[in-house]
Amino acid sequence: MPKYVVEKSAPQISREVIQLLEQTETATVGHWRHWGFVDRGVQPLLRRRRVAGTAVTVQILGPDSTLLHHALGLLRPGDVLVVDRLGDDRHACWGGGVTVAAKAAGAVAGVVDGPCTDLEEVEASDFPLWCRGQAPITTRGYDLGGRMNVPVAIGGVVVMPGDAVLCDDSGVLVLPPHEAEAEAREAIARQERGLKTQARVAAGEKLGDISGATAKVLAGLG
């Protein structure tokens, strides 16, 4: 087996679909979809960001980040770099230097199933990053091997190269490319209906009456 596997990056999600996803809240999709949501322990380091892009996947292990540094040179504008740490929760593979390199390549976000570091530098770069908190112990170039653009596991979700990745304050959602547009359009429609419902409640109507919940409770009282 080769020490490194580097496959070709998958085709990118169309700009039209990305623009739809950028209007989509992950929590809206969570009203009907139950799969594709990364474990909620993967949280944003920077708040009030919503980004969408095409998954470029990397698997690296333990204290080594050799392949991650190489992968940064292969990123395209619009990519989301998704890093499978193979269970390691001790070493921060992503810090200020990786952030600057990812942003310079045009990547729109990073998602790491493990800790990161250098929060001040991430903030200074204004680069959206989702991870499992912070750690002071960093990875190094130990040349232990790894794989790029292969299926990976991030927070209980299988991420395929080329998947659509949507990240916001509520979490991270991974969608197969052929499902992304329909899910985004449904979410946008529901969000518009939700705003109308909120306006009705603000005007004095009861949410339970609008949703039908009150009728169900009254019927259940016998």
Automatic annotation (TrEMBL):
SUPFAM superfamilies: RraA-like. Gene3D superfamilies: Ribonuclease E inhibitor RraA/RraA-like. It comes from the Bacteria. Its cofactor is a divalent metal cation. InterPro entries: RraA/RraA-like, RraA/RraA-like_sf. This is Putative 4-hydroxy-4-methyl-2-oxoglutarate aldolase. CDD domains: RraA_family (cd16841).
